[in-house]
Design goal:
two-stranded antiparallel sheet, single chain, mainly beta, 5-stranded antiparallel sheet
Length: 75
C-alpha cells in the first residue's frame, strides 16, 4: 500500500508512510492498494474509489502524481 497526504497549504499531495493514516486520521489521503486501485480518504468518511480523475475543492489533480516511485516525505 502507498499513501499520499494533501498538504493544504501548497494544495499538493506528498507521499507519506502508511502510519500517517492512524496518526492523523482527519487528513485527506490518496491510498493506492496493492492491486493498483486508488482510494480517497478524507477525515472520518468512508474510502471512495477514484475514477479517471480527482477533483477536490475545484482543483483537478493529475493521477500520474500518485506514482509509487515518487519520493517519500517523512514528515
Amino acid at each position: 500500500m502507498y499513501v499520499w497526504k494533501l498538504d493544504e497549504d501548497r494544495i499538493e499531495f506528498d507521499r507519506v508512510l502508511p502510519v500517517m493514516l492512524q496518526t492523523d486520521p482527519d487528513g485527506c489521503y490518496v491510498i493506492q492498494r496493492d492491486d493498483g486501485t486508488l482510494l480517497l480518504r478524507s477525515g472520518g468518511a468512508a474510502d471512495e474509489t477514484i475514477g479517471d480523475r480527482l477533483l477536490l475543492c475545484g482543483v483537478e489533480f493529475d493521477l500520474d502524481e500518485f506514482d509509487p516511485m515518487r519520493e517519500l516525505t517523512t514528515a
